[in-house]
Write a structure and sequence with these properties.
The structure is a homodimer. Chain A is an alpha/beta fold. Chain A folds into 2 domains: 351 residues, FAD/NAD(P)-binding domain (3-Layer(bba) Sandwich); 126 residues, Succinate dehydrogenase/fumarate reductase flavoprotein, catalytic domain (Flavocytochrome C3, Chain A, domain 1, Alpha-Beta Complex). A 6-stranded mixed sheet of chain A has the order 8-4-3-12-23-22. The radius of gyration of chain A is 24 Å and the shape is elongated. The relative contact order of chain A is 0.19. At the A-B interface, α9, α10, β14 and α13 of A face α9, α10, β14 and α13 of B.
């Protein structure tokens, strides 16, 4: 029997017609695929709206990549914590920053909606019992304490500080231990969901969507315990299965630059839900895009050094978020970057950053690296000339990190992909959706009964997302919108 | 009647089941969608293999974007013309260059195959009567005479000249008038196709593929003369409809960087065939990728100047192909680049390149541009220091273009996207195919009866394609392979 079911599964197309389904094994109002933060919030809101909700999760426990994260949620426009910490933020400033920092074709509609609702959304998270401490963490990396609010992006940095009034918007879930906020977030979402009557089936893998005669999605085929179960979902199916960074064939094919870096996520970030949505007629967007993380300037005193490409040129203000450094390093500098320090700021970087040159003069460094004479010397001269006056007009690094590098000996660390092994990425592309999560086809028309949220969809961080917390923000927020849309549709149908 | 048919067309899904086709209006062995160079060559080889072939073309005449091109075909490994002009080339050198110059994840299988067959393929083109003159054009831009062979890429330039032995591989069809080679190429292909019995239906638009019960493609629905005609194709359907650069919604969604540049192609490069192939289960690859053309260094004496980004830094050896300059300018320099010349090499560039600064010293230029002191000065000092010795060790510009820029006054031209209006792009992504053109699904399995060739498929220039002539090369070559594969399959079926 199990053998036969397995063969059935292998031969099953990703989209089957309901006319070929001989028997429904279960019947729910809403079927959610994946219990990360997006699926969890969709389930909670759908259940609160009166729907019977089943979440099928591929792993043996809920959590997804959300649970592996540090629990940073990007909120702004004047949250209770921002105000308590003395920061003045506005919807307009937040929108301007996200429009400027998320790529060539930012998702204006979703950005606009999220910025307007961000304060209310934060309050909703708090209402679930997710703890946030009203405290500010004055660094540009994730809190290593239980502090909350910090600059999780490059809001304070050039060029964004000229484009939008800066404010810290990274809200970190308060949890014991470093980077445990994501786990606590997910534990809370699971508790709330169960309390609301949401059912969860783990070790369950959706292998096909089921379509009605008109193309509307009316259910799914799920592998569980060696069998294929057909689950009817009269209010629709929500794809919340995460991105595809773990599917290295798909990465090479669609996001090839990310194939040079290590994948960040859980093993089931394999694109399965995106492919299901495509089979049902969903269009995709931004499939090439990824977040590139490379925390090479750690400890942060190293920000006072200068990052060089292999021509000895600077390429970013060194104080930007490590994701922006990563994006520039991978996409614009072929993954080969270096850090130059002098003896005054020298300290051992965290992790492997091989010293590839030392010397009392730029010429000695150039010779040791085999770089042309003047390559480092010219860069250093221009930097020092302005650093003497306490500023960095060429790249706009903030004054507090600017000091002339005039105390030999100098050292150059290799901070590139090959040398360091700390470049990680996850994908940003996914199914095209309306803000309600409805999956859209290539003409922009919704496919009835099909929703996608979280990293299985394209969202706030369209092609670039240099701020930590955007993934959990959009996962939780647009997850909620999808859950509410489904509940509302069920109600109007019943009426 | 026509009204009803039009409604039918509007409501028709892109993939219909043959069980719903009540009547076949025509019955052929092979249906080819699109008569550019790829569709034309597929048709010719299929017809020569004994198949009855129908090509449906959306325009009022065959030609496609191939006919609008300059007629450059990238061939190498020792063609008759290369040998006649005294160039020594090898399959291995050609392969090494294409592997290094076509992106992070080059298509090794297709590159390997094409390099091995390139000489024979060139001979085949000649055998059709396509004229090539055995002459060398000693510039890195398309011949403005009827000359043939030239360096159509960056083979001679850094870093490629260190990675592969250079040879010119751009073979230009001999035609009267500048850039008329593409038209002559297509006229010849049409003549040959008609001679071989290929039928052509113009003003005909494929709106859906027809699938058999097993998912194999067995025909298509074609709009022609106000009616929807169902055409059976027992040997399969070949998608040869070109790329999607004219579909600006699709570009914004999937290749957003290209949305900043003007589209290059014919109006029907709208992605229609790619979308049809996806509806039939085909996977896509490299949908973000595009060719960026920006011929800003014209006349070529301007190559002796230096290109700067808006930090006053150089970023490429100025002697590389304009497509490589374009790619760097758009993807790495935000489309903002400048050209610095001194009085000795000053000449008026072709086209609009506003002079944005003049001065006797770098400082005067910096002040006029509002750039930090030292930004241009440092770059110029390093360049001149090495140019004095006749070389460019930092970027590797060839010695013949290197001269110290030491004759004031200086001028800076704005060569960016906004200022010049000469940045054009076309898309490289498309359906995943085997070298035979068989369209592959996400698991890499062929969809029976479905082929894609030319720019509707992903090919030789995976994510980057800095050499002119690659599009016609792969269109003609892989078009042929698809036609031969179909003919062979029909024969083996008949046997």
């Amino acid at each position: 029997m199990a053998g036969k079911s397995k063969r059935d599964a292998m031969n099953l197309s990703r989209l089957v017609q309901d006319s070929s389904v001989s028997r429904w094994d279960d019947d729910v109002d809403t079927l959610v695929l994946g219990f990360g933060c997006a699926g969890g919030c969709a389930a909670i809101e759908a259940a609160r709206g009166g729907a019977r909700v089943l979440v099928v999760e591929r792993s043996s426990a809920p959590g997804g990549s959300s649970a592996l994260s540090g629990g940073v949620i990007y909120c702004g426009g004047g949250t209770a914590i921002q105000r308590a910490c003395g920061f003045d933020d506005s919807v307009e400033a937040m929108r301007a920053y996200l429009m400027a920092s998320t790529g060539d074709c930012p998702n204006a509609e979703k950005i606009d909606l999220y910025c307007r609702d961000s304060v209310a959304h934060f309050d909703w998270l708090v209402s679930l019992g997710i703890p946030f401490k009203a405290s500010y963490w004055p660094h540009n990396y994730e809190p290593t304490t239980d502090d909350c609010l910090y600059y999780s992006g490059s809001e304070e940095c050039a060029p964004f500080n000229r484009l939008a009034k800066p404010a810290p918007r990274g809200h970190t879930v308060q949890a014991e231990g470093s980077c445990m906020g994501g786990r606590l977030l997910m534990e809370t979402l699971v508790d709330v969901a169960l309390r609301e009557g949401v059912e969860v089936m783990t070790d369950a893998n959706c292998i096909a969507l089921v379509a009605g005669r008109d193309g509307a999605i009316v259910g799914a085929a799920v592998r569980h315990d060696g069998e294929t179960r057909y689950i009817r979902a009269r209010g629709g199916v929500v794809i919340a299965t995460g991105g595809f960074v773990m599917n290295r064939e798909m990465v090479a094919r669609l996001a090839p630059a990310a194939s040079r870096t290590a994948p960040l996520g859980n093993p089931f970030d394999n694109g399965s839900g995106i492919v299901l949505g495509e089979a049902a007629g969903g269009a995709t967007a931004n499939m090439h895009a990824a977040i590139y993380s490379c925390p090479v300037l750690n400890p942060p005193g190293l920000i006072r050094g200068i990052l060089l490409n292999e021509r000895g040129q600077r390429f970013v203000p060194e104080d930007v978020n490590h994701k922006r450094i990563g994006e520039h390093a991978v996409l614009r500098q072929d993954g080969r970057i270096f850090l130059l320090v002098d003896s005054e700021i020298f300290e051992q970087p965290a992790g492997v950053r091989p010293i590839v040159a030392t010397g009392d003069t730029p010429e000695e460094l150039e010779d040791e690296l085999g770089w042309p004479r003047g390559s480092i010397g010219a860069t250093l001269a221009v930097y020092n000339r302005h650093a003497d006056e306490g500023h960095d007009p060429l790249f706009g690094k903030k004054a507090k990190f600017v000091k002339p590098l005039t105390a030999p000996p100098y050292a150059v660390f290799d901070c590139g992909i090959e040398a360091t092994g700390v470049y990680y990425s996850f994908t940003l592309g996914g199914l095209c959706t309306a803000p309600t999560g409805e999956v859209l086809n290539a003409e922009g028309r919704a496919i009835p009964g099909l929703y996608a949220v979280g990293r299985a969809a394209t969202g706030l961080s369209a092609q670039s997302g240099g701020s930590s917390g955007l993934q959990l923000a959009e996962g939780t927020y647009f997850g909620r919108l999808a859950g509410r849309a489904i509940a509302a549709a069920l109600k109007s149908e019943a009426a």
